[in-house]
Amino acid sequence: xxxxxxxxxxxxVSLIQxxxxxxxxxxxLLSLQQQLAALAExxxxxxxxxxxxxxxxxxxLELIIEKN
Length: 68
Description:
By secondary structure, the chain is an alpha+beta fold. It is globular and about 35 Å long.
């Protein structure tokens, strides 16, 4: 699966009052859009793992999105 990022993307995942909040700038949202479309076409069990070491802003929670 091809994971691409738009230049200048920013994405943060946080927990606020027991709710997961994903906040992103325009480039981050467009990047997620492309990645979710690619994941939709991938075989079941495929997943994308996001964390502060490879894609998310510092102190973000890890996020894994998996296709059933």
